[in-house]
Design goal:
It is a single chain. The protein has one domain (5-220). It is mostly beta strands and 221 residues long. Strands 1, 2, 3, 4, 5, 6, 7, 8, 9, 10, 11 and 12 form a 12-stranded antiparallel beta sheet that branches. It contains 3 helices and 12 strands. Helix content is 9%, strand content 31%. It is globular. A hairpin with a 5-residue loop joins strand 8 (123-128) and strand 9 (134-139). The protein starts with a helix and ends with a strand.
Length: 221
């Protein structure tokens, strides 16, 4: 059946969440808890993690800098050509999140996104990149220095569970007191190629984040 242009647009913007239906059977599988018991992974509505780290790593530190979007931030975003309207609304987006002109995010279609919740709470998350691999991500509680370690099971790497079609980056002023505005973003740089780097914005420091799709969370058995 042929899809209308609007339907195709919605499919692209949903970060391909519908492909997760084929993975639902895996969500109920138990995983080993740190104490030697088992933790069940409970199916949840799709969430998204913003992650930093070596794509080839299976574990690492600094998970306190990771964030969580409980809802897909793409459809809740604001188009770049509506930035002036967002400013006139006091930074309140139609989806009721608050824009911060000193710390803002873009996604792969050039939509201004709400910030994720940082830090990502400790626990177990079943994550996928909607490709070949689904794995359990463990976020450990912070140690006495505030560092939170992370690890993936089954030998999965961060790249394996990164959803390449969903791109995201955080933009902050490049200089103290400087201007870092979405108005300076080049609209012709979007959409971003799956797996590609997000475009720079004049006056801003950019940090690219990997996007992981969360399809389940751990609950103690």
């Amino acid at each position: 059946m042929a899809l209308t242009r609007s339907t195709q647009h919605l499919i692209r913007r949903a970060c391909l969440a519908t492909v997760l239906l084929v993975m639902i059977a895996a969500v109920a599988q138990p995983v080993h808890a740190a104490g030697g018991g088992q933790t069940k992974v409970q199916r949840i509505s799709t969430q998204f993690i913003a992650a930093l780290g070596d794509p080839g790593a299976t574990s690492g530190s600094d998970a306190q800098s990771w964030g969580l979007w409980p809802l897909d931030p793409g459809p809740r975003g604001v188009e770049l050509n509506r930035y002036q309207r967002l400013k006139e609304a006091g930074g309140i987006a139609p989806a009721r999140w608050k824009f911060d002109d000193k710390d803002w995010w873009l996604e792969e279609h050039g939509l201004i996104m709400e910030q994720p919740t940082v830090p990502l709470p400790p626990g177990k998350y079943r994550v996928t990149g909607a490709r070949a691999v689904t794995a359990v991500l463990t976020i450990h509680p912070a140690d006495r220095n505030g560092d939170r370690r992370w690890e993936l099971d089954q030998g999965a790497t961060l790249y394996d569970v990164t959803h390449l079609a969903c791109r995201s980056a955080r933009y902050t002023p490049a200089a103290v007191g400087g201007s870092c505005s979405p108005a300076n973003a080049q609209k012709t740089a979007f959409p971003v190629t799956p797996g590609g780097a997000m475009p720079p914005v004049a006056g801003c420091t950019k940090q690219d984040y990997a996007v992981l799709i969360v399809i389940g969370v751990g609950v103690e058995d």
